[in-house]
């Protein structure tokens, strides 16, 4: 039986090193069988993947996880339900940053508590679209007061690099984690953030590990699809591949990952995930597995270890990559650039917020 690795973010707070992602269960990712997705969460929990990621702006996902927790508590008791760790986010709308009130920030926390049906949020990951607008430090102070009230256990941030995180740490906040995009395609967290995080007792929780499904066998040997996707996640990660290098170099990377996987009898996606888990200061990888049928491949990451020869084979491809470069979320924070134009910025108040322009313009 596969033993899922665990790690501690703080004394007394442990998580599984693979986190079940929730973004793929929200809108813009194709049809979701809600009942099946909720029922299948139990298989992940029983396998040892105890930690689930969601957000206030992932439409319907907090409610789905809440339904799962409630059902588990009813059928199997509090001891089993209490094994679940839920990491959510607090992402105020871009259009409200200038005038967002303290009571509105706490109301978002209360809404997440109600949706999840829990007394305390394990981890709230804070994000503020534009740090020059409004008062993000005051908003985080509201979250710290929510901690004192017992509504939140731990605070983290998401999609920020050192320059953005440092003022919050310097203000005396215990930031336990930063959720960042990190994969063999996107190594921006290695450009200083990982070292800085180690010096501040902050862990990296990594999304995009499989680049929305691009880092799987289904794309090995496939022709360049361009940007003709209805799925916004695929557009996002196809742009990252563009930064990495030409499609031919991406294919070389898939081949290298597949070669390592063949050596151990595991999928190339397991190799890609293992590579991320082995990076300095990485606590966990967030994998967007929707249903229990994805669980066996997800668990393969714990069935082998990369050796120096494996890492050298992968590095030989990575060393020829053009990018992406710069700070974490630097490309995406340019709202006029092609990465920023595919984002939705007002999903708390306006869930129908439109994508701001074409992906490859």
Topology of this protein?
Blueprint (H helix, E strand, L loop, with lengths): L5 E5 L2 E4 L1 E3 L13 H14 L3 E3 L7 H16 L1 H4 L3 E6 L11 H15 L4 E6 L9 H13 L3 E7 L3 H9 L4 E7 L11 H7 L3 E5 L24 H13 L2 H18 L3 H10 L4 E6 L7 H5 L8 H11 L43
Parallel strand pairs: 3-10, 4-5, 5-6, 6-7, 7-8, 8-9, 9-10
Antiparallel strand pairs: 1-2
Helix pairs in contact: 1-2, 2-4, 4-5, 9-10, 9-12
Largest sheet: 8 strands, parallel
Query: What is the average of the pLDDT values?
Result: 92
Q: What's the CATH architecture of the domain at 11-213 and 269-303?
A: Alpha-Beta Barrel
The value of Rg in angstroms is: 20 Å
Question: What's this entry about, in short?
Answer:
The protein contains twelve helices and ten strands. It has about 350 residues and is α/β, with parallel strands linked by helices. It has a domain at about 10-215 and about 270-305: NADP-dependent oxidoreductase domain (TIM Barrel), CATH 3.20.20.
Written overview of the protein:
By secondary structure, the chain is α/β, with parallel strands linked by helices. The protein has a domain at 11-213 and 269-303: TIM Barrel. Helices cover 37% and strands 14% of the residues. The protein has helices at 34-47, 61-76, 78-81, 102-116, 136-148, 162-170, 193-199, 232-244, 247-264, 268-277, 295-299, 308-318, and strands at 6-10, 13-16, 18-20, 51-53, 85-90, 121-126, 152-158, 175-181, 203-207, 282-287. An 8-stranded parallel beta sheet has the order 3-10-9-8-7-6-5-4, covered by helices on one side. A two-stranded antiparallel ribbon has the order 1-2.
């Amino acid at each position: 039986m596969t033993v899922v690795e665990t790690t501690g973010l703080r004394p007394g707070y442990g998580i599984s090193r693979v986190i079940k992602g929730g973004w793929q269960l929200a809108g813009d990712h194709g049809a979701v069988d809600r009942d099946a997705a909720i029922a299948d969460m139990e298989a992940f929990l029983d396998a040892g993947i105890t930690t689930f990621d969601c957000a206030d702006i992932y439409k319907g996902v907090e409610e789905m996880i809440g339904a799962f927790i409630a059902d588990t508590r009813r059928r199997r008791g509090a001891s089993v339900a209490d094994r679940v760790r839920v990491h959510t986010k607090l992402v105020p709308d871009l259009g409200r940053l200038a005038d967002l009130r303290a009571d509105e920030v706490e109301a978002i926390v209360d809404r997440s508590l109600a949706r999840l049906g829990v007394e305390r949020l394990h981890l709230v990951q804070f994000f503020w679209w534009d740090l020059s607008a409004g008062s993000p430090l005051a908003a985080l102070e509201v979250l710290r007061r929510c901690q004192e009230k017992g509504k939140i256990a731990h605070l983290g941030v998401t999609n920020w690099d050192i320059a953005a995180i440092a003022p919050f740490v310097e203000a005396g906040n215990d930031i336990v984690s930063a959720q960042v995009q990190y994969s063999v395609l996107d190594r921006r967290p290695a450009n200083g953030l990982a070292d800085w995080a180690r010096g501040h007792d902050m862990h990296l929780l990594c999304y995009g590990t499989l680049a929305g499904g691009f880092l799987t066998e289904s794309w090995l040997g496939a022709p360049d699809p361009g940007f003709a996707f209805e799925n916004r996640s695929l557009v996002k990660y196809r742009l990252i591949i563009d930064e990495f290098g030409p499609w031919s170099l991406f294919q070389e990377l898939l081949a290298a990952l597949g070669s390592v996987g063949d050596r151990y009898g595991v999928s190339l996606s397991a190799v890609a995930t293992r590579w991320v888990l082995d990076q300095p200061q990485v606590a966990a990888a967030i994998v967007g597995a929707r249903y229990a049928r994805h669980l066996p491949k997800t668990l393969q990451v714990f069935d082998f270890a990369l050796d120096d020869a494996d890492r050298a084979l992968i590095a030989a491809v990575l060393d020829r990559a053009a990018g992406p470069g710069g700070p974490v979320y630097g490309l995406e924070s340019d709202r006029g650039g092609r990465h920023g134009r595919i984002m939705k910025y007002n999903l708390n108040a306006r869930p129908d917020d439109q994508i701001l322009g074409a992906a490859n313009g």
